[in-house]
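protien #1 (seq + structre)
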Amino acid sequence: MGGLSLLSLVYVALSYAAAAIFVGGLMRKLWGYAVTPNPLCIPTTPSPATKGGVVARLALNIVAFADLFKGNRWTWIGGYAFHVILIAVTVRHLRLFIYPVPPLLAEIQPLALLIAMLLPLPLVYLLARRKMVDRYAWISSPADYGVLILILLIALSGLGLKFVSHSDLVGIKHFLLGLLMFSPVDMPAHPAFIIHLTLVLMLAVYFPYSKLVHAGGVFFSPTRMMVDDPRERRHINPWAAK
């Protein structure tokens, strides 16, 4: 890394630090969920009475946000649209981390771009809903608004980088592949790219310590992952059995 510019050295260090905090913080959080005792049978009733039913409900919630749809369809509209568009954003960015780009991934890039361009819309919708609906405004903290604003800024800066202030895409891909292969190279000194990357690194650092960790925590929720069979099977608190 001796031949890198000062700017590149700083962002290489920040990128690796953010990645370490993201991975380490997320694994620590999920490990904490995994080892936390759940001595009581506390599924949200009505829940599936078999393990297969629990798996099926979890799959339906992951694919279609079924419980949110049942609970509040207006919130479901914004939340589901956001997550679907986020998949398109991920697909769009995969080309920057893979060489050579698989033909199928290259083929779907135009469609992924069209969908990804819509990302600010559900974010603005969710922000407005939090502010304008009394019951959501009452329980919303500054962190709830902050993370939505941060993701919105990432979306807007990404669109600006694509359509307003074009950068060296080859140079960006070269820089990102260098980070991935632990062989850093100079990054493009383009203001729009620097802003976009900085915001992404901020989100990566914040992710494990925010409500965004529900992306992994959903698999450890006892109220959603337990079988609802207290009538069929006696549940004994292991602490009480000692």
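ok now protien #2
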Amino acid sequence: MFIQTEETPNPVTLKFLPGRDVMEAGTADFPNRDTAEDSPLAQRLFGVPEVAAVFLGSDFVTVTKVPDADWQVLKPAVLGAIMEHFTSGDPVMRKAAGPAHAAGDGENNEVVSQIVELLDTRVRPAVAMDGGDIVFHGFEDGVVFLTMQGACAGCPSSTATLKMGIENLLRHYIPEVDEVQAVA
């Protein structure tokens, strides 16, 4: 098994490409080891002490390290954990991932549908290339509420991505959108 790695815009996060599907559908975000009970793969990765967060995408695994760890030292242990998982035959997830977006808004259903479609077709594929994902939480009074996950969570450029990229895109296509705000 050959696992490729790619740098992400976030210096504490690397994207690992195992050359096979990771998630059958959706994504899974594990911001700390206490949240990994549903994923044998994430649990195995958190067995490496310097791993701070794990994100699972369709065909990639994004790993965030603790700030003082060195990728030169950490990368072989992460590669080993991923390889060990896929050769073990264990499932990536014990149960299916939840929906891609956290909430809807019946009151603004048409606008919400347009927002979600733009996020799914234009934004999420681009964010996934950087090892992350974006989750829609709601739309209220012209404000779109989103969460960045994976490599995008805590990335130095995530605010610029939200404000100059996603906000401008949504405002261009959907006049009802005034602003995009991050949800923690």
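The first helix runs from residue 40 to 46.
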